[in-house]
C-alpha cells in the first residue's frame, strides 16, 4: 500500500523485452534503502525489485500491467515517479493508493496559473465502469502517475471522462509532472473507498 506522496524520480536506463514481460532497469535514487523483493510504486504501479546492483535496479512488468498502464510506452531516458511501500507508523499524508492502476488517461490541457500548474486529463468511461467505482468526484482523491491529488472539475460526456488537478510548484518540481505536456499518457488509480462504496451499492440493490 502507498500514500501517493512521491519520494523521488528514477531514470530508465534500459528496457528488455522478455516474451510478454518487460524488464526495466532504472538508476536508483536511494540504493542504500532498497532491497530485492521490495515493492516500489513506479508511476503508481506496484512493481517488485528483482535485481539491485550499485545505483541500478531492475523491476519486471507483466503483460496485463503493460496493457493497463503507461509503462509500455516508457523509453530509455524517461523519468518515473517512485514511492516505497508505506510502513504502519508513517503518516498518511496523501490517500490510500494500492499501486493497482485502473487505466490510462491523456493530458489534454496544461498551463501555468499564477505560480502553480493546471492539468486536465481525458479517459475512457462507461456506465459499467462508473458502477464499479471508476469515476472521480469533486474534491475527492485520485492518483495520477502515483501522485495523490485532489480532483477538480470532474465530468463525463458519453464515453469520455474528464478530470482536472492543480499542482503546486514543489510537486511540479519533484515529480514527472514537470515533463508532462498535451498528449502525454498518464496512469490513473481511482479512489479505493469509492470502489468499495460502488460495489456495496450494487450488492444491496
Q: What would CATH call the architecture of the largest domain?
A: Beta Barrel
Task: Compute the number of structural domains.
Answer: 2
- Which runs of at least 5 residues are low in confidence (pLDDT < 50)? none
Structural shape: globular
Proportion of beta-strand residues: 35-45%
Order of strands, widest sheet: 10-9-13-7-8-12-11
Cα-atom radius of gyration:
17 Å
Which CATH C-level class of the largest domain is it? Answer: Mainly Beta
How helical, in percent, are the residues?
Answer: 10-25%
Average the pLDDT over all residues and give the rounded result: 94
Q: Look up the CATH topology of the largest domain.
A: Elongation Factor Tu (Ef-tu), domain 3
The total count of helices amounts to: 4
What is the count of β-strands? 13
Q: What is the helix/strand order?
A: EEEEEHEEEHEEEEHEH
Distance between the termini: 30 Å
Largest β-sheet summary: 7 strands, antiparallel
Structural class: mainly beta
Amino acid at each position: 500500500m502507498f500514500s501517493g506522496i512521491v519520494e523521488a524520480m528514477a531514470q530508465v536506463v534500459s528496457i528488455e523485452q522478455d516474451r510478454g514481460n518487460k524488464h526495466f532497469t532504472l538508476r536508483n535514487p536511494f540504493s542504500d534503502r532498497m532491497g530485492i523483493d521490495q515493492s516500489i510504486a513506479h508511476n503508481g504501479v506496484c512493481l517488485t525489485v528483482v535485481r539491485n546492483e550499485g545505483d541500478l535496479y531492475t523491476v519486471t512488468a507483466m503483460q496485463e500491467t503493460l496493457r493497463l498502464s503507461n509503462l509500455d510506452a516508457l523509453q530509455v531516458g524517461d523519468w518515473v515517479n517512485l514511492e516505497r511501500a508505506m510502513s504502519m507508523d508513517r503518516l498518511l499524508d496523501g490517500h490510500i493508493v494500492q499501486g493497482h492502476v485502473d487505466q490510462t488517461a491523456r493530458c489534454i490541457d496544461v498551463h501555468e496559473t499564477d505560480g502553480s500548474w493546471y492539468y486536465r486529463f481525458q479517459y475512457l468511461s462507461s456506465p459499467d465502469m462508473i458502477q464499479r467505482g471508476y469515476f472521480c468526484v469533486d474534491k475527492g482523491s485520485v492518483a495520477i502517475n502515483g501522485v495523490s491529488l485532489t480532483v477538480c472539475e470532474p465530468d463525463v460526456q458519453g464515453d469520455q471522462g474528464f478530470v482536472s488537478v492543480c499542482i503546486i510548484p514543489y510537486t511540479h518540481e519533484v515529480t514527472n509532472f514537470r515533463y508532462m505536456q498535451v498528449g502525454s499518457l498518464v496512469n490513473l488509480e481511482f479512489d479505493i473507498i469509492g470502489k468499495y462504496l460502488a460495489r456495496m451499492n450494487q450488492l444491496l440493490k
